[in-house]
Specification:
Structural class: alpha/beta
Bound molecules: adenosine-5'-diphosphate, magnesium ion
Number of strands: 10
Number of helices: 9
Shape: globular
Strand order of the largest sheet: 6-7-8-3-9-10
Strand content: 15-25%
Largest sheet: 6 strands, mixed
CATH architecture of the largest domain: 3-Layer(aba) Sandwich
Radius of gyration: 20 Å
């Protein structure tokens, strides 16, 4: 192949485009700007950490990526094509699944019914295939989050502990994801072993070509599994860096002290 210049040509097709790209996303709630001109990409088969202090705008970004909250302005590209309308039916069609920070489950229904709510497996007469759905539920709960103490997929969600409910929300997203799994502080209620299992699962997903976005307060968790880190501060993106170009210490400085923290950290390192 011959190249005439060093410039990279704009691809005329979507080949080589990132899976998801947000461009200049702004979100206002009344007079408050909670996201200010945020742009980033999620690559194919990439695990991206979305970090920042409370109120930084992480969950709002998660909701915009998931199509459950509209942006005030900005653009949403999927595999290089701009979406004209970003709605939940559209993101579901693209294969995006999200574990929301406040995932709502129906306590009076079984674990299985919660996982398949609205997306039940049915036979050709429209009857639910409960046995098949119970079997799938049992399998995901065993394999991905390895939560102890869940006796049966038929158990009511109201009988579960916080960590077990969290596992149900995880199982639901894990089962339906096809291209992008977004996790908003998924490990907050999980025990150490279940957390390890979930983090390992994200790495494993990459080999299946599924990308993920991990929102977490635990920078060690993020650093362990994420290929790239995006740090938000007061609605702005202040850092977007590949794992090999940063450290837990720099991420901590960015999350705790914002843009000044990054500068201070880099100055300190330059002197060292
Ligand atoms: N529905 C809403 N109405 C008004 N303000 C909101 C709403 N959702 C979030 N916010 C505000 O947006 C800011 C960012 O919140 P959020 O995205 O939840 O941050 P994070 O997940 O990083 O803690 C906060 O100041 C929060 O109060
Ligand atoms: Mg949040």
């Amino acid at each position: 192949m011959t190249t005439l210049s060093n410039e990279v040509a704009e691809p005329s097709t979507s080949a080589g485009a990132p899976l998801l790209r947000l461009e200049g996303v702004t979100k206002n709630y009344g007079p408050n700007t909670v996201l200010d001109d945020v742009s980033f990409e999620i690559g194919n088969g990439e695990v991206v950490g979305l970090l920042g202090d409370n109120g930084a705008g992480k969950s709002t970004l998660v909701k915009i990526m998931s199509g459950v909250v509209p942006m005030s302005s900005g653009a949403y590209f999927w595999e290089g094509e701009q979406l004209s309308r970003v709605s939940r039916p559209e993101t579901e069609r693209l294969g995006i699944e999200t574990i929301f920070q406040d995932s709502a489950l129906v306590p009076t229904m079984s674990i299985t019914r919660n996982i398949f709510a609205g997306r039940e497996v049915t036979n050709r007469f429209g009857f639910m295939k409960m046995r098949e759905m119970d079997a799938i539920t049992t399998e995901i709960l065993d394999s991905v989050v390895s939560i102890e103490g869940i006796k049966s997929a038929k158990q009511l969600v109201s009988s579960l502990s916080g960590g077990q409910s969290q596992a149900v929300a995880i199982a639901r997203a894990v089962h339906f994801k096809r291209s992008l799994l977004i996790l908003d502080e998924p490990t907050s209620a999980l025990a150490v072993r279940a957390t390890e299992a979930l983090l390992n699962y994200l790495v494993h997903l990459k080999s299946d070509g599924v990308s993920s976005v991990l929102v977490t307060h635990n920078l060690h968790h993020a650093f362990k599994v994420c290929d790239r880190h995006i740090v938000m501060n007061h609605g702005r993106k202040i850092l977007d860096v590949r794992r090999e170009d940063t450290s837990v210490e720099e991420l901590t400085a960015a999350v705790v002290e914002g843009a000044e923290g990054i500068k201070r950290f880099r100055r300190g390192n330059a002197l060292a």
